[in-house]
Amino acid sequence: MTSATSLSIAILGGGKIGEALIAGLVAGGVNPKDIHVTNRTEATGQALEERYGVVPMTDNNGAASDADVVFLCVKPKQIVGLLEEVAQTIDNNANTVVVSMAAGVTNAAMEEVLAAGSPVVRVMPNTPMLVGAGMSAVAPGRFAREEDVELVTELLEKVGEVTVIEESEMDAVVALSGSAPAYYFLFTEALIDAGVSLGLPRDVAKRFAVSSAAGAGKMLAELGEEPATLRANVSSPAGTTIAALRELEESGLRGAVYRAAEACARRNKELG
Questions:
Q1: CA distance 61 to 265
Q2: 3-state class of 103 per DSSP?
Q3: Would you give the DSSP letter of residue 102?
Q4: Hey, is 187 helix, strand or coil?
Q5: Residue pLDDT, tens place only, 173-195
Q6: In this structure, which CATH number among 3.40.50.10470, 3.90.45.10, 3.40.50.740, 3.40.50.720 belongs to the domain 4-169?
Q7: Which of 110, 180, 168 is nearest to 139 (CA)?
Q8: Maximum Cα–Cα distance for the chain, whole Å?
Q9: Fold entry, domain 180-271
């Protein structure tokens, strides 16, 4: 298998996800001169070149030419059109692995655009990859070989954790990972507003709420305890925490989470 540090990589779309991927790849030892990044404006490409040393381009076909891996880092509605644009270039290199970083679009939809047998991998990343703490779900297409999946996994591990799943599980994974950081941001935002309502200055309320979110996340990740156990450990009988938790339960927090996850998964299916 080709070493991840000696690949030719094309990143089509240098937005937030594309830039996070660039930052992780470069930090992980990939030569920035082996990373060709396309943007609609030259100014954006020049900024990425200055920050990371990558090769900026505005021609998608030029970037994809001779690439070992092509990452599609655009919005879901743009994936198929972008793939149609570069299909001939990719078809000329049978070893190119195409990786979609967008929600909704299925492997089958991408495979239909490319020559028969083209290796395609569908990925659902999440925004914590911007700080090297992402979670990427990897769903191989029909023609993706084991070594293709290993290569994509190795690259994505430079921006966080990676889990290989069945594509049939992707709708649920989007709800539990791809979109989930937004749920935590919303809860933290509400907690900050509650602190202000209780009389704290907003900057102080933000410091406490953000620190609590970060600390709780670290405990969940590192202690190996069930969330219910960690919750119970700070819930003294007739205490302050249990009074707050009762309000959350009576307000339907748990049911709201179920419905939110179901709505997210349903929308992901619709996008496909």
A1: 33
A2: coil
A3: S
A4: helix
A5: 999 999 999 999 999 999 999 99
A6: 3.40.50.720
A7: 168
A8: 69
A9: ProC C-terminal domain-like fold (1.10.3730)
